[in-house]
Amino acid sequence: MINYTLILDYAGAIFVLGGATFLLITGIGLLRFKDSFSRMHASAKTQWLAVFLLGLGASMSMRTWPWVAASLLMIALQTVSSPIGSQLVARAAYRNDEFEPEFLIVDDLADDIARAEARAITDRDLEEQQDETDDKKNESKSGQEKTERDAAEREN
To answer: Which of 105, 121, 122, 123 gives the lowest tally of CB atoms within 10 Å of its CB?
Structure first.
């Protein structure tokens, strides 16, 4: 006779051990890699798999609906938040120059930043031209008003 609870307990233990192993690999990767992008990759990819394995192992070992629900919620939140967090960390590292440019194969963000800076310079130039035009109009108005006042004073 096959004891299914014993099989589920062993399978759960193997999954929890696998999740713990991936967390250990994540920690080693964070310590070993020098570049922030490499560290981010090591933490985001292995962390998700570790959370998945830990949730699966806990659900198989505990075998209650609250544990299954909590594990599914944990996996879903990790699935949603990990890519977003990685994106934000990567953009912050790039903007603060906390990376090694020689490690990059493709640098798509540099083109985007160059276009944005060119657009900002163009917008700033247009604003300055508009300000100069407004100043000239104000000067000509004040000059006309002064001429009109002088003419009115001469008449009096």
So the answer is: 105
Instruction: Work out the percent of the chain whose per-residue pLDDT is above 90.
Output: 40
Contacts of 34 (CB under 8 A, 6+ apart): 100
Tell me the H-state helices in 63-107: 65-95
Q: Is the dihedral of CA 18, 19, 20, 26 positive or negative?
A: positive
For residue 113, give the H/E element and its range. Answer: helix 108-155
Instruction: Count CB atoms within 10 A of the CB of residue 95.
Output: 10
Structure token digits, residue 17? 């051990």
pLDDT reported for residue 143: 61
Residue 142 main-chain phi, psi, to 5 deg: -65, -35
Are 37 and 90 in contact by the 8 Å Cβ rule? The answer is: yes
> In the 3-class helix/strand/coil scheme, how is 52-73 assigned residue by residue?
HHHHHHHHHHHCCHHHHHHHHH
Residues of the chain with pLDDT under 70: 135-148, 151, 156
Q: Is the pTM of this model over 0.70?
A: no
Backbone angles phi, psi at 73, to 5 degrees: -65, -45
CA distance 149 to 21: 88
